Amino acid sequence: MKTLFSSLFLFPFCMVGFSQDWGEIESNDLFSIYIAEVEHKSPSDGIHHQRFIFKYENHTAEPIELHFNREVQYGDVVTTQEQDFQVTIPGNGSTEYDAAKQYDKVYYLFKKDNEGLIKRSLNDFKITNLRINQK
């Protein structure tokens, strides 16, 4: 019974494996963007991989909206993700990856497949075309 309880208690944490070891990747007087690496498991979707997750923090009293693209390198291939990523951050607040946003690519970036089914792994990335709209 103790093992079952421990397994049930840990199950929500194992599904995503959140890490609060945030590292700052972009910052100025208006906002900061942080990154952390997590293990993402979703048995129902057949997914077990590593992700970089993002946290966006607003340093102003008014909401701001960030727009950006990403340049990613998987193997030797560098690609600009043409999607216009957009995130609204409340005044003096933050928004970050969580279970409700696990399919929203604004909040995560695939790093590598732990099952070996997807051979490409992320070597590098950068945020490009960053634009800020103050609301």
Chain-wise SSE layout:
Layout: H1 2-16, E1 23-27, E2 31-42, E3 47-58, E4 64-74, E5 77-89, E6 94-96, E7 108-113, E8 122-134
Structural key phrases:
135 residues, mainly beta, 5-stranded antiparallel sheet, globular
Q: In percent, how helical is the residue content? A: 10-25%
- The span between the termini is 53 Å
What is the helix/strand order?
HEEEEEEEE
What summary fits the major beta sheet? 5 strands, antiparallel
Query: What is the overall silhouette?
Result: globular
Category by helix and strand content: mainly beta
Radius of gyration over C-alpha positions, nearest whole angstrom: 17 Å
Portion in strands: over 45%
Unreliable spans are 1-17
How is this structure best described in words?
The chain is mainly beta and 135 residues long. The chain is 11% helix and 56% strand. The chain is built from 1 helix and 8 strands. It starts with a helix and ends with a strand.
Compact description:
With about 140 residues, the chain is mainly beta. The protein is about 10% helix and about 55% strand.
